[in-house]
Amino acid sequence: MSIEPFRRLVRIVARAFYDEEIPAKGPNRSKSDKSDNRGIAVVILDALTRRQWVKEDDLAKVLRLHPKQLRRTLRVLEEEMLVIREHRRETVKGAKLYNAAIAAVSEDHPGGREGEEKLKVHTHSYCCIDYAQVYDIVRYRIHRAKKKIKDQLEDRNTIQEYICPNSSCGRRYSALDALRLVNPFDENFHCENCNAELVAESDKLAAVELGDGDGEDNARRRRHEKLKELLEKMDKQLQPLTVQLSRVKDLTPPDFGTLAQWEKRAIAAGRMSSNGEAIVDLPKASHGQGLTGTPMPFLGETKVEVALAGGDVKREEGKDEAAGGPTKVLPPWMIRQGMSLTAEQRGEAKLEMKSEDSAALAGPTAPLDVKPTEEDNEAMQKKIQEEYLKAYYAALLQRQQEAAQMAASAANGNMSTPGDSTVGDGTSEALAAQEMKMDGAEDEEEVEWEDATATGAMIGEDNGGGSGEFEDEDEIDWEEG
Amino acid sequence: MFFHIYLERNMQLHPRHFGPHLRDKLIAKLIQDVEGTCSGRHGFVVAVTAVETIGQGLIRDGTGFVTFPVKYQCVVFRPFKGEILESVVTMVNKMGFFAEAGPVQIFVSNHLIPDDMVFQSGDVPSYETSDGSVRIQKDSEVRLKIVGTRVDATEIFCIGTIKDDFLGLIGDPGGAT
Ligand SMILES: [Zn+2]
C-alpha cells in the first residue's frame, strides 16, 4: 500500500513547517481578527490525510472549526501547494454526486444526507491533498534552504560589497564597480567620493558581533561557525522528514485526480465493493477488485443515487476520453495494486473467498491491518495481528485437511503425477512448520505473521487454480516454510 | 561565449576614397572601426568575417561624406553568468585580483578565493597556499567561473570565482600552456 508513507510524510511536513501561527497572506485580514490559529494547519492536514476529496463545509463541521477559519488556513495551504481546492456552483444533483462518492469511499461520512439538506444552487469548495506535489514541494523547499545556507557558508556566487569607512560618507560599492575603484598608486579600492580606502562588508550575521573590533578575519570565521551550526541544526531537525522522503522516493504517490474524476471513480469502486458496504479505506477498494467473482451490488436507496450519477459518469467518461487519460478505466489504486500490493493482501482476499468462517474473521481485520499505523496504536495492532493469526491458522488447518482429502481423491482419480505421493509429507511438514511458528509468534510477531500470510497467499492461489499442478507448487512453498 | 552574428552599421566614407578601391577601403574602415569594440547587447566584436551587402551610398549635404549602410558578419564574445573562462591575472591586491579573458575584465574578490589561499603583499603581491604549492600572482593563468556581470552600453565587466571544483590556477607566469 503506497498511501501510508505519503500520509506520514504529510503529517511530518505539517508538524515541521506549519506548527506555528500561520501568517495570513493577503490584504483582507483585519487587525481585530486575533484568532489564534496556531497548530490548526496540522489538524487540518491530519484530517485531510484520512480523507480524499472532502467538502470544506463538512470538514469544518467535523473539525468543529468555523468554516471561515478553515478556509483561511486552506487558502494558505493551497498557496503552499500542499492542497488542491476546487470550487463549483452546484445544484442538488451535483451535491448528491459528491455524497454518493463520499458514501462509497469513507466511513465517517454516512451517505443519506441528501434528505436533510435542501441544497440550493451554491458555490461549494472541496479540498484534497496533492501528495505528488507535496513530495516535490517539500524536497524543493529543503533544497532551497540548504542551498542558501551553503552558498553563504562557502561565499559562493555572492557578490562582495564594499563600504566607505568614512562615517560622513558611508557609500557602498559592489565588486562590479571594482574596476573604477582601483587606485592606480596603491592598487587598492578607494571611495570615489572621499578617496578613503574601502573595506569589505561582512555579512549581516557577523555584523552584530562586529563591535569587538577584532578584525574582519575573526568576524568571518564566526560567521562561518554560525552558518555551520545552522546547517547542522537544520539537518538534524529535518532528519525525520528526509528519512520519510527517501522512503517515499520510489513509491507512486496516490492521485485522486480532479474532483469530478474522483467522484466518478469512487462511485465505480463503491459499486464493486461487495454487498454494498462502504469501503473503509483504499486497501479495501483493492480488495473488492481482488475478488474475481464480485457479488451483485446491494441495490439500496443509495444505489438509486448511484444510478443517477451513472448518467453523469457516462458524460464524464466521454470527456475524459477526449483528454486521453489512461486512468479512466481503472482507478489508480487498482492499477497500483499489482505493484504495491504485498502478497499478504492478496492472501487475505483469497482466504476470504476460500472459507466462510475465515472470511468472517479476516474480513473486519483486513482493512485494519493496514490502518493501525494511522492511529499509531501498536497495542491495537498487536491484538489485531494475534486475532488474525488465530483465525488464519484455524483456516489453514481446515485448508490442509481439505487439501489432504482432495489429494486422496485425486490419487483415486486420474492423477498419476509424482506430486501426489509427496502431498502428504508436504502438508505434515507444513503443519510442523506452522506449529513452530505458532511458538515463535510471540517473539517475532511481525516477521512471522508476514511470512505466514505469504505462504497463505500461495495456498489460496493454488486452490483457486484447483488444477493438477498445485501439489508441486505447494511442495515448493512448504519447503520454504 | 562566442557567437557568429549579422550586424549592420552606417559607414561614413571620405570622398577621397571614392574610386576603384572604394569597396576595399570601406571594408578596411569597417574592420578598423568595429573590431575590439564592445556593445552591451552583443558583447565584444572579435572579428569581422564577411561583408554581406553594401547599400546605396547617401551623400551628406555640405561635407561630401557618403554614408553606406553595411551589413556584415562577425564573431562576438559575450560573457555570461555561470560561464567558465580561462584568464590571465593582471593585478593582485588585498581585495582580490583582476584577470583578463580576451577583452573581458574580471575581478575575483578575496572571499571568492579558496580559504586556504592567503594574500601575501610584497614586491609581487600574490595569493598562495600555506605550503606555497599554489601561487596566484600577476600573469598567472587562472580558470574561473563568472558569478556576476555588469553590462553597460559600451562595457562588460565580470565578477568571477575560483572557489569551486576544478577552478583556480592552471598555469604559472610565462609557463607554456
Ligand atoms: Zn567615501
UniProtKB/TrEMBL annotation, chain A:
It comes from the Eukaryota. Keywords: Transcription, Transcription regulation. Residues 6-139 form the HTH TFE/IIEalpha-type domain. PROSITE patterns: HTH_TFE_IIE. Residues 441-451, 469-481 have a biased composition (Acidic residues). Residues 345-374, 408-481 are annotated as: Disordered. InterPro entries: TFE (IPR039997), TFIIE/TFIIEa_HTH (IPR017919), TFIIE_asu (IPR002853), TFIIEa/SarR/Rpc3_HTH_dom (IPR024550), WH_DNA-bd_sf (IPR036390), Znf_RING/FYVE/PHD (IPR013083). SMART domains: TFIIE. The keyword Transcription regulation applies. It holds the Pfam family TFIIE_alpha. Residues 345-357 have a biased composition (Basic and acidic residues). PANTHER family: GENERAL TRANSCRIPTION FACTOR IIE SUBUNIT 1, TRANSCRIPTION INITIATION FACTOR IIE, ALPHA SUBUNIT. Belongs to the TFIIE alpha subunit family. This is HTH TFE/IIEalpha-type domain-containing protein. It comes from Sphagnum jensenii.
TrEMBL record, chain B:
Residues 8-64 form the RNA polymerase Rpb7-like N-terminal domain. CDD domains: RNAP_II_Rpb7_N (cd04329), S1_RNAPII_Rpb7 (cd04462). Belongs to the eukaryotic RPB7/RPC8 RNA polymerase subunit family. Its main location: nucleus. This is DNA-directed RNA polymerase II non-catalytic subunit. InterPro entries: NA-bd_OB-fold, RNA_pol_Rpb7-like_N_sf, Rpb7-like, Rpb7-like_N, S1_domain. Pfam families: S1, SHS2_Rpb7-N. Residues 79-156 form the S1 motif domain. It is found in: Nucleus. Keywords: DNA-directed RNA polymerase, Transcription. It comes from Sphagnum troendelagicum.
